[in-house]
Design a protein that fits this description.
Elements lengths: L1 E2 L7 E2 L2 H11 E6 L2 E6 L5 E8 L11 E2 L2 E15 L6 E4 L3 E4 L5 E17 L34 E3 L3 H20 L5 H13 L14 H13 L6 H7 L4 H12 L3 H19 L4 H7 L5 H12 L3 H8 L14
Parallel strand pairs: 4-6
Antiparallel strand pairs: 1-2, 3-4, 5-10, 7-8, 7-9, 7-10, 9-11
Helix pairs in contact: 2-3, 7-9, 7-10
Length: about 325
């Protein structure tokens, strides 16, 4: 394990670790003429950082997968080779790629290599039924999986703003570190959901608009930018000109959680960043992220992260100076 290549703060897998850990989390199978990579039970999520060297291109082969995969191109360049497409999909630093199950493909590094952070997961990691993997069109009915729905044009690729991509990587590396600390902990699935919640309303051409409520999509973006402020169901529904009852129901359907749970996730993610990157006292951090009571903040943080803010800071203490502000609203 080494430090991540961007922030130099989070412990992530290096190339040797990725190869060594692969058979622990994945199973290679051959069924007829098809080669498969499957997530080994009982794992429903596997985040990893892996750098591919130019020489690795000769070793990679087409394979199908029985999971979703969201890929962040951290550095270098390369391509995604798909058996059904004559041309490779070019990839470069700063892109996010959404790979659907059954896609018969593999990655090819360019002349300077290809460095990626990847979250492979089953729907159950998000609280959705795993049957979606067999009935792939069902993904269109689940807001956080719409980008993975199969389409004729191939996988969705998205390029956030540089600051937005940096924010995504901060949280992605955090989730990767937490996974290797505790593969069955609550934090990695929480971070996967945060990443997809940040991405979903920003994706151009997100399929099945009928399944998305524009007011809820707007509310998610608004909350990512204003989670530090006092929020209520009444004020938020009024902002988007909906009744509180209707807004609450649609928000739950679109996000899978209630308003307060959604806010808590955003606030705790930002609190974790402040604990790592600053020397602010814990009571100040509680106020900075929107909690009026440090006791309430401690309870919410421990419930979501599995440890106290003090333990989180102690585990990361002493690594470098603070960096500029980043939140999931960038």
């Amino acid at each position: 394990m080494g430090l991540d290549p961007l922030f130099h703060r989070f412990r992530v897998t290096d190339r040797g670790d990725s190869e060594r850990l692969f058979p622990h989390y994945f199973l290679r199978e051959t069924a007829g003429n098809e080669k498969w990579i499957r997530l080994r039970p009982p794992f429903s999520l596997y985040p990893v950082y892996y750098p591919l060297r130019p020489a690795d291109a000769a070793r990679h082969r087409y394979h199908r997968r029985d999971f979703y995969q969201v890929v962040f191109v951290v550095g270098g360049s390369g391509s995604l080779a798909m058996r059904r497409e004559p041309k490779h999909r070019a990839l470069s630093t700063g892109e996010v790629l959404f790979l659907e199950p059954l896609l018969d493909a593999h990655f090819l590094p360019g002349a300077r290599g290809l460095r990626m952070a990847s979250y492979s997961f089953r729907p159950s990691a998000l609280g959705y039924p795993d049957e979606i993997l067999r009935e792939r069109r069902l993904a269109e009915a689940y807001p956080l999986l719409q980008a993975f729905a199969p389409r004729e044009t191939g996988p969705v690729a998205f390029r956030p703003s540089p600051s937005g991509f940096s924010t995504l990587l901060f949280h992605a590396f955090h989730g990767l570190e937490e996974f290797h600390r505790d593969p069955f902990g609550a934090v990695p699935p929480l971070i996967l959901r945060l990443l997809l919640e940040w991405l979903a309303p920003r994706l151009p051409g997100n399929p099945s608009p009928k399944n998305r409520d524009s007011a809820v999509a707007g509310a998610r973006i608004y909350l990512n930018e204003h989670f530090r402020e006092r929020q209520s169901l009444a004020s938020l529904s009024a902002r988007f000109r909906l009744s509180p009852t209707y807004f609450s129901r649609r928000f739950n359907e679109e996000t899978g959680v209630g308003l307060q749970a959604f806010l808590n996730r955003l606030r705790v993610a930002e609190a974790r960043r402040l604990l790592v990157e600053t020397r602010l006292p814990i009571h100040r951090i509680a106020g900075e992220v929107g909690y009026g009571s440090v006791g309430h903040f401690n309870a919410v943080f421990r419930d979501l992260m599995g440890r106290t803010p003090g333990a989180c800071r102690a585990g990361r203490g002493g690594r470098g100076a603070a960096r500029p502000h980043q939140s999931m609203g960038a």
